[in-house]
Amino acid sequence: MVHQSFILLVFLLCITSSYSTKFVQVDEICQKAKNPSFCSTLLNSKKGADLVSLAQYTIGVLRVNMTNTVKLINTLIAQSGNDVKALTHYKMCLKEFVNDGGALFVLGNVERVLKEGNYHLMSVGANDIMQDIRNCIYDTSYHDTSSLPSYGEVALQIDQIIQIIAGLFTA
Ligand SMILES: *[C@@H]1O[C@H](CO)[C@@H](O)[C@H](O)[C@H]1NC(C)=O
Fold first, then answer.
1. CATH topology of domain 23-170
2. Is 41 a pocket residue for ligand 1 (Cβ < 6 Å)?
C-alpha cells in the first residue's frame, strides 16, 4: 500500500512538472532576437503571458504573415506574363511556402509539437521554415524588385522569435 502511494506520488509529480507553466520576460526573449525592437513590438501586446501562450501567439502571427505572402506570390505570378525568369522564381517561392515540407506545412507541425511539449522538434521546424523562406528570398538567379523579399524578411524575424522561445523552454 505504501509502495503504491509512492508510485502514485511520483506519477503525479511527473504530470505536474510536464504541465507546469513557464514564464519568461519579453525582454529576455527579445534581447536574443536579430531585431529586438521588432520582437518587443510584437510580444509586448502579450506581456505577462506564459511561454506556451507567447509561442502560440507568435505562430498565429507567422501564419497570417505567410498566408499574406502566398497571396502576394500568386499576384506576382499572375503579373509575370511571359517573363519566364520571373515565373520560375515566383513558382519556386510558392512551393517553398505551400508544398508538403514548405513553410506553412512545417508551421502546422511546429504548432503540433509545441502542444506535445517537444521543444527540440519545435526548434528544428522553425529552422526548416527559415530555410524555406531563405530559398525564396535569397534566390540569386532572379533579382526580385517586388515587396516579396521584405515580406520574407519580416516572416524570418517572426520565425526567429519562435525559435528563441523553443530554446527557452529547456533553458
Ligand atoms: C506581418 O506581421 C507584422 C507584425 O505583426 C506586420 O507588421 C506586417 O504587416 C505583417 N505583414 C503581412 C504581409 O502580413
1. Butyryl-CoA Dehydrogenase, subunit A; domain 3 (1.20.140)
2. no
Ligand 1 pocket test: pick from 153, 154, 162 the residue with the most ligand atoms within 8 Å of its Cβ: 154
Q: Give me the phi and psi of 147, to 5 degrees please.
A: -80, -5
* Residue 142, CB-side half-sphere exposure with 13 Å CA sphere: 21
State how far Cα 107 lies from the chain centre.
Answer: 6
How does residue 171 score in pLDDT terms, banded at 50, 70 and 90? Answer: confident
- Distance in angstroms (rounded) separating the CA atoms of residues 139 and 95: 13
List, for residues 21-55, the tens digit of each pLDDT value.
Answer: 899 999 999 999 999 999 999 999 999 999 999 99
